[in-house]
């Protein structure tokens, strides 16, 4: 495993961007995707006419108020639920169920309390029946990368919430997936830990050059992290705007107080009308 | 039980022993103090003498061994059947659909009420006791197994499935370990009920066992003897329960590691021995 070479935290190399923009845009193509939830009671249009392309190595954030279908979109991309209409393409293959090259991070850490930190990180290896010995050093490197080396043999109950979430994130990376799907991974953390985790995630992404779809309630978090921000509105869940964020990398927390940053935040917030919908 | 370990200081231990002495003293004096005749409430010393005689003569040992054998055999039989059927119900929805009406019917029936029939069918030997104990041990095990296996956290299931895992892997990696707290609680309930079932059946008719011994002492108005057997039964129950608690601490080692894991509200909250929520799938288990 070579991809951790430059990842000794201090000198994260800038991530290699694909040169050919037209073809790279096509790593993931979401076409006319719609999703209904029904059964008994009224039918809910969770997603309608969703069109989105995601490039290889791109960091895309999705923001929108509660119930606009963000998690539904993520669960579709993870292959956990089918669509009612439309298609999702991964490269030139239709998405038809869970894939082996995706890592999912949930809002809660979703650790197994009877497994140590290391064994939790190795869950993807166990599930996919890969050779544990081959991935052991990679797992250790990843745990080290988020500063948890000393806790390798501890159990989740012995970790703080932020530490648990970090375990959940590096677990999603251990089988070297092409893509990370993250559903409000920092939603349960306090503001300070959250900012710290944002910086750490950016670093991790720059070192690992993964494609990331990152769902959040927080507009500033989305602007801070993403190359592009997808703004969604509810009932029915649709994409209202896709915004390119032209802020230089590596981004710092100080940047959040600069005028361009504030402008992006204002522009996204405008979609949600009166104050108090989000953040 | 609330956590009382912080109160376990040397001073409190001494107070606790003094309290015991006080209780024993009041008990000893009660025939005189409250004018209670000895054939209703024997004095503490009479009970102690009865206990001593029974233990040294080997009488309690023999009958205790018979009772213990019946309890353990019934517990093992009913417990393992309950576990097996619980797994089957949790895994196979079709099977669950057809068997649930019977489960609910039996569940609401006081199962020890079948003991007289079992004595009639299987006689005065150990069989009728084992069958009763197995029957009462069966239900809590089955119901706790079902609730446990269906308790697995949804996000954890999704995690395994999102990695391309199979239902089988979900079972072995997640459902079964998630069910262990429920299963351990079920074992403790089943053990307690097995003891009750065994003793009640011995009351009804037996050629050996502590229940039968107690019944015959009652007929001979040997109330002190009856009390001493009650003490023996309490000790047997305590030892059996303690053994299971030790096993539970071993098996569920992660439950004693500190704070509750945020993603696991359902399966970390049932550390208590007789976890009532483990019964929630069906009406509460009664003896
Ligand atoms: N399994 C389901 N069955 C029925 N309705 C569902 C289901 N999952 C989601 N929905 C509905 O679909 C809509 C979108 O839900 P979704 O969870 O995707 O929203 P969300 O944007 O992730 O919200 P939040 O920010 O609160 O997590 C909601 O109206 C929800 O009620
Ligand atoms: Mg959601």
Automatic annotation (TrEMBL), chain B:
Keyword Membrane carried by entry: yes
Region (Disordered): 268-287
Localisation per UniProt entry: Cell membrane
Cellular component, GO, one term: plasma membrane
InterPro entries given in the database record: MetI-like, MetI-like_sf
Domain ABC transmembrane type-1: 64-248
Keyword entries, A-Z: Cell membrane, Membrane, Transmembrane, Transmembrane helix, Transport
Keyword Membrane: yes
GO biological process: transmembrane transport
Transmembrane parts of this sequence: 12-29, 36-55, 61-91, 103-124, 130-152, 173-199, 219-240
Family per record: Belongs to the binding-protein-dependent transport system permease family.
Protein name: ABC transporter permease
Organism: Bradyrhizobium retamae
């Amino acid at each position: 495993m070579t991809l951790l070479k430059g990842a000794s935290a201090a000198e994260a190399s800038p991530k290699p961007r694909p040169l050919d923009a037209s073809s790279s845009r096509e790593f993931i193509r979401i076409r006319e995707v719609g999703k209904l939830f029904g059964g008994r009671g009224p039918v809910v249009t969770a997603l309608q006419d969703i069109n989105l392309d995601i490039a290889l190595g791109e960091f895309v954030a999705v923001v929108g108020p509660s119930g606009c279908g963000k998690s539904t979109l993520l669960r579709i991309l993870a292959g956990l639920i089918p669509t009612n209409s439309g298609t999702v393409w991964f490269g030139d293959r239709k998405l038809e169920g869970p894939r082996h090259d995706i890592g999912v991070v949930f809002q809660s850490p979703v650790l197994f309390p009877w497994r140590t930190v290391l064994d939790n990180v190795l869950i993807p290896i166990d599930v996919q029946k890969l050779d544990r010995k081959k991935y052991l050093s990679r797992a250790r490197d990843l745990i080290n990368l988020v500063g948890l080396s000393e806790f390798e043999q501890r159990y989740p109950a012995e970790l703080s919430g932020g530490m648990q979430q970090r375990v959940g994130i590096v677990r999603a990376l251990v089988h070297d997936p092409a893509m990370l799907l993250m559903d409000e991974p920092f939603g349960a953390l306090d503001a300070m830990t959250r900012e710290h985790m944002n910086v750490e995630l950016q670093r991790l992404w720059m070192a690992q050059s993964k494609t990331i779809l990152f769902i959040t309630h927080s507009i500033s978090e989305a602007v801070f992290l993403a190359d592009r921000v997808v703004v969604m509105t509810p009932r029915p869940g649709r994409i209202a705007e896709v915004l390119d964020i032209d802020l230089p990398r590596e981004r710092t927390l100080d940047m959040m107080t600069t005028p361009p940053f504030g402008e992006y935040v204002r522009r996204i917030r405008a979609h949600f009308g009166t104050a108090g919908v989000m953040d | 039980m609330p956590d009382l370990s912080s109160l376990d200081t040397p001073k409190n231990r001494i107070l606790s022993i003094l309290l015991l002495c006080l209780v024993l003293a009041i008990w000893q004096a009660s025939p005189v103090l409250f004018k209670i005749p000895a054939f209703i409430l024997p004095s503490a010393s009479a009970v102690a003498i009865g206990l001593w005689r029974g233990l040294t003569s080997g009488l309690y040992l023999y009958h205790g061994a018979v009772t213990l054998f019946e309890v353990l055999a019934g517990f093992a039989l009913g417990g393992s059947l309950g576990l097996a059927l619980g797994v089957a119900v949790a895994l196979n929805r079709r099977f669950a659909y057809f068997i649930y009406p019977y489960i609910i019917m039996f569940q609401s029936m006081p199962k020890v009420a079948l003991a007289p029939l079992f004595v009639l069918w299987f006689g005065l030997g150990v069989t009728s006791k084992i069958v009763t104990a197995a029957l009462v041990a069966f239900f809590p095990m089955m119901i706790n197994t079902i609730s446990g296996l269906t308790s697995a956290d949804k996000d954890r299931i999704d995690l395994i499935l999102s990695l391309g895992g199979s239902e089988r892997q979900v079972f072995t990696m997640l459902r079964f370990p998630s069910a262990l707290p429920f299963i351990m609680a079920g074992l403790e309930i089943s053990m307690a009920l097995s003891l009750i079932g065994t003793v009640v059946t011995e009351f009804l008719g037996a050629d050996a066992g502590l229940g039968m011994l107690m019944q015959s002492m009652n007929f001979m108005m040997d109330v002190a003897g009856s009390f001493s057997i009650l003490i023996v039964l309490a000790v047997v129950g305590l030892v059996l329960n303690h053994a299971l608690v030790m096993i539970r601490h071993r098996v569920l080692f992660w439950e004693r590691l500190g704070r509750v894991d945020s993603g696991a509200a359902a399966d970390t909250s049932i550390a208590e021995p007789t976890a009532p929520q483990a019964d929630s799938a069906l009406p509460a288990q009664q003896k």
